[in-house]
Every structure is written in C-alpha cells, then in structure tokens.
Amino acid sequence: MSRRLELRQVSKRFGDIDVLAGITLHVEPGEFVSILGPSGAGKSTIFSLLTGGLEGHGGDVDFDGRPLADTRRPFAFMPQHDALMPWRTVIDNTALGLEVQGMSRKAARGKVAPLFGEFGLAGFEQKYPAQLSGGMRQRAALLRTVVQDRAMLLLDEPFGALDALTRTGMQRWLQTMWDRHRWTVLLITHDVREAVFLSDRVYVLSRRPASVLREIAIPLPRPRKDLASPEASAIEADILNTLLDPQPAERT
Amino acid sequence: MSQPFSATLRIAVLFGKVGPALLSVGTLVLAWELYARLSGISPTTLPAPSRVLAQAIQQRQALFDNTVPTISATLAGFACSLAVAFILSVLIDFFNPLRRALFPVFIISQTLPLVAIAPLVVLWFGFGLTPKIMLVALVTFFPMLVALVQGYESTDRDISALLNSMGASRMRIFRLARLPSSLPYFFAGLRISITYAVVGAIFAEYAGAAKGLGIYMLNAKNNFRPDLVLAAVLVSALLTLALFAATVLIQRVVMPWERLDGARKS
Asked: Which string of DSSP letters, residue by residue, matches B100-140?
C-alpha cells in the first residue's frame, strides 16, 4: 500500500529567506504524525504548501502515490486559531466546508447535526461562536474539519491558544476521538507533551531554515490514558534535548 | 432579584446611559435661555430657545413642507452613493490597481469646498432633485467606499486560508468571508456618512431650490427671522439624530452576533 502523504526534499524560499530546507517526511494511512518545532520554524509553511495557499517550491509532494498537483484537495485543514466566522451560527460554521463543496445549506446542516453530541456541542447549534468557551470553539473547528470527509486532516496548533487545563482536556478528548475514528492526521505543534501523547510518530524540525532533525516513533500502547507516564516522560525529555540543544551528532 | 427591583434597576441603567447627554444639552439650552432673557439682546439677533421652540410649533406646517424634500434628497442621494460605493468597492477588491487609479480622484473630490461646488452644480443641473442627489453623494460616497474597502481587507487571514483549503473560488471567499467581515466597517461608515448626508442636502438647497430646509433657512435669514432659521436647524438636527438612530437599529438587526461579542468583552 502506498504512503498517504510523502514529502521529499521540499524546500521553500520567501525572497532571499530560506524557510524550508529540504523537508522529507511521510504519513501512512490511519497514522497520527506530528511535526514539532520551534516557533517561526516554518511549520505552517508546510501546510500552506499542501493546501494550495502558496505556489512554487522545491522537491516532490506525493499523495497516495501520485503527485499532489494531480489530486483534488485531499486535505481538511484546521488553522491555528479556530477561524470560526463570528457571523455564522455554530451549526453553519461547522457545515461551512460542505457548503463550499456544493451541498445546500440545509443538507449540510443535516449532515453535521448528528455529530454535535459526540463533539460535546449538543444544544449549541444555534449559538454564535462568541457564546462558546475556548474548548468548545476548538471542538466546533475540529468538527468543521472532519465532517468534510477528506482523506487526511491537517491540524495547525489546534490547542495553542487555550489555557493549560483546557488544553490538556482537549488533548485527551482528541485522543479518544482519534481512537474511535482513526483519521489520518498530520499535526503541527510546539508542545512536546502534546506530540508524544497523541502521535504514532514525531518529526522534530530545526530552526529556520527548517529541516528534519529527527524522526521519533512513539511506541506507547493505545488507548493512552495518562499524559505523563514514565515512558512518555523519557521520550519527552529526549525530544526536548534535541530541540533545545540540537547537536549535529544527534542527527541520526 | 425581585421583578420590580430589576425594573427600577433597568431605568437607572438607562438613565446612566442617556443622563449625561441630557444634562449637558440641558445646561447649554438653559444658559442660552438665561443669556437671551437677561442680557437684553434683541430677539432678531439671538432669540431665546423658548421662542425658537414656540415658532417651530407655530410654523410646523411650513417646516414640515420643507423637511420632506430634504429627507427625499438625503435618502435618494445616500442610496445612490451607497450603490456606487458598493459596486466600486467590489471592483477594487477584485482588481487592486483600480484602487491606485481611482483613490487620488476621490480624495481630490473630498477637498472641493461645498460653498463653491454647490452653486455650480445647481447652475449645471437646475433646481430639481438631481443637484441635491449629486451633492449628498459627493460628501458621503468616499467615506462609504473607504469603509467598505477597509472592511474587506479586515478579513481574518485564517478564515481566508481555511476557505482556500476548502477549494472556495475568489468569488465564494468574497461572499462568505470578505463581505460579512466588512459589516462593522460598513456601519461605522454609515453612521458618519448619514450625518454628512443631511448637511450636504441642506447645503445643496441653500444654493438653490424650490423647497427644502436649506432654502427655508436662507429665506428666514433674509427676512431677519433668526428664530425661524434656528427652528429649521432644530428640525435638521432631529432629522440627523433619527437617521443615526435608524442606522444603529439596522445594525442590531443585521448583526445580531455583534452585541454578543460586546456583552462578552464588557
């Protein structure tokens, strides 16, 4: 079976600034992979390249064994901030992707409505985003993402703006949801614990120009209940060392 | 909390909101009234507010007859201005070089002194509705255009990126994101422009009209009746306030989510 997503030596320049310097990574179907890196390393640039927000780059991007350019938008993207439209009710926000795909608003609502319970949003269908808590807004944004039925989810620091307690709750919730649905996910984060807790594999990026410093498998059994098991802590410490003190010798 | 208490509270809150405004306006009117009565100044120079009000009531039919054309000129001019501003703002949003081509012209149009332009427009287009519509449009068009263009540009970049990732066309992104994003700016522009619009209409009438508050003021002044001039001023102020309140009401209906936002922040 071919890999779902494969990047080979992908590079990107903005003017005379190198942002990506030869990124090579892959994601298997049904796999949860994280990209971990310092702020401003160009993590989001990778997503912009994938979702068509940026033109022109070096290297190859393949999806299901074919060049990405030949596929029809295989990604559902969740941007850094929830990007909920303040003027749309929660149900119409979550149905946005379906509407853009050409579904009537009524049909789109009919498709998202049954999922509100599972996403902890029951009863908030007709509210506006301003009436939701931070965690609920993120769950609504994730619902908007997964309901598009794309082959792969791209999550850009989905919990970065939440307070620590809410973030931990959301990480546990996402892990439960992933266990149930087994989406193929590529997650961008700078939270080491989040990456270790959620992922099957983690790519650690260098500072700009970004390249892959290390690829780390997280062999912890699922379902994972505890964010801070001793095994997880050992992996976290290892990753932190790579991030904070990136010795060339550690590039394996 | 018991019901009567909360009702009292609501009245108290309402007074807290409008009280200061009533107090400042009341003080001004009172000072004016006292000065007009006690200084012995002639009412043909400075009539007391009580006299202005009495004259306004006495002349209500004439005032009404002259207010209707002003209202129609204001609304017609403003509607034209809005329509043109909207169409141009969309064109500019889709084709940015247009902005650099057109904005200098519009900025120059804003430097034209109304005193000079109003009589010329009347000279060219006569005493009918056309020159009034044109002058109202002249003073309101640019603020509305700037508000709309800025409003489109205020669109959250994450929302644009999201729609882009969903495969939405440029047109779709405009309708789903840029247009609704411009609403707060649109209404801010609307509130400013609507006050200009009334002034613009009155100015146009002042320069030449069969009927209207502007020509009424001119005639009253020529007949040495400052009380009637001020009565017309009172009517135009009330008209502006009413239009302003209407924009606030429309905004509340069109943007119900905005009040939620405000409620959360405060």
From this structure: HHHHHHHHHHHHS-HHHHHHHHHHHH-SSHHHHHHHHHHHH
Mean pLDDT for chain A overall: 88
Query: Pick from A118, A133, A150: which residue ends a domain?
Result: A150
* CA-based nearest residue to A194, from A180, A173, A215: A173
Q: What is the DSSP letter of A216?
A: E
Q: Find out whether B161 and A51 touch, Cβ atoms under 8 Å.
A: yes
Evaluate if residue B2 carries a pLDDT over 60: no
Number of domains in chain A: 2
pLDDT at A249: 47
Task: Say what the pLDDT of residue A226 is.
Answer: 72
The answer to whether residues A221 and A241 belong to one domain is: yes
**What residue in A sits closest to B175 (Cα-Cα)?**
A100
Q: Measure the CA–CA gap between B22 and B30, rounded to whole angstroms.
A: 12
Tell me whether A8 touches chain B (CB under 8 Å). Answer: no
Q: Specify whether B37 is located in the same domain as B53.
A: no
pLDDT computed for residue A77 by the predictor: 93
Tell me which chain B residue has its CA closest to the CA of residue A87.
B257
> Domain check: are A31 and A120 in the same one?
no
Q: Which residues of A touch B183 (CB under 8 A)?
A: 87
Q: Which pLDDT score, from 0 to 100, does residue B261 have?
A: 58
Per-residue pLDDT at A250:
45
Q: What is the ipTM of this complex?
A: 0.86
Looking at chain B from residue 160 to 219, which residues have their Cβ under 8 Å from any Cβ of chain A?
161-168, 172, 176-177, 180, 183
